[in-house]
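tool=predict chain=A
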Amino acid sequence: MKKIFFTLFAIAIFFGLKAQESVTLDLCYLKAIENYPLTRQKELLPVSNELKIKNLNKNYLPVMMVNGQVHYQSDVTKTPFQDVSIPGIPTMPTVSKDWYKISLDVNQVIYDGSLTGRQKDVEDINLEIDQQNIDIELYKLKDRINQIYFNVLLLRENIKIIELHSNILTAKLKDVESGIQNGIILASNADILKAEIIQIEQSLAELHIGIQTSIDILNEFTAMELNSETEFEMPDISIDVQNYLNSRPEYLLFTLQQNKLEASKKVLGSKILPRLSAFGQAGYGRPGYDMLKDQFDDFYMIGARLHWNIWDWNRSGKEKDILDLQSKIINTQKETFDKNIRIDLQNKIAEIRKIEEMISRDIQIIELREKISKATSSQLDNGVITSTDYLTEINAESRSKLDLQAHKIRMVKAKLDYKATIGNL
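tool=predict ok
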């Protein structure tokens, strides 16, 4: 018996916890990013970059090539005394016109003007740029989550006010029906209230469908199992409009692009520096290095090679000028982006101040509307006014309360939009 009691108690606690389950905006951000396919791409980018770096590191390894050649030529090198026979002196041999050669050629870089190292720097910056582009898309994802999350909050507040409005009308309907029975109020007044209650039920059904749709979309983004019972916590947002700092991911991307241009200039500088390498060749063929020895022989050679393009007709200089121009273009894009952000922030600040003023007015309006509704309720009970007159005033009261709740949610959303604009989500 005791075991059954504890089992039932545990089940009750479980369902109690489920009923009180809540979600925060930050958790939705986290889950949406975890579940977004681009996040997995971000994990693959370092692997790709590592492979590129490994390939560049192979520039320091020796290059080995097997070369083979077979050919027949119309003539060969001869001396003036090729066919002269001198007693006691061997006849000068004649080289064959068919040649055969196979060799292993090895080239080892000793110094490449830091070209490989600077190419690796460019690849590292490319990785940062690719990752930053993904961060930009993930930041846009947060904005989409904001829209869905606050839509749920706003619709739920609407439901609360409308249900309260429905309860008031239902209670008033009972009073009117009592007045009809006593002959004080016309029967048509009850029909008017009933029609309004049905319209409210229709509006509630639409709101519930809207909430469920938003929750389904949020579940698709986050892979969570949110439902109509899940509580969506209102985020506590604070902003500082005095201190401006642009932290948008797009802004950082401009800087990374300029860093890549600077790294590319260094690569150009390395291309005009001298390069030193060691080489070797070993092979077998006919003839070997001794051109007058007309038989198959082995041969080898080792040495060092210097390559230095001392004059490229200022091609590198022109390419650097192009990169400088591209950097200046990015600067103008950066300044334009920052200017647009500042302008947008002014609109966001104006929106916040406007909502603050509206909330202040809403409170005053609600106080007056409640007094008017109370007075018209008494007048309807006494048959002084019709249900239509009463509905006009009670709807105005409900609308003012809806406006207040909507403005409060809009205030939080406006502050969040301000943070999103400066890249501080």
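DSSP finds eight helices and six strands in the chain. The helical segments are 2-19, 25-35, 37-57, 115-181, 188-222, 249-271, 315-381, 387-421.
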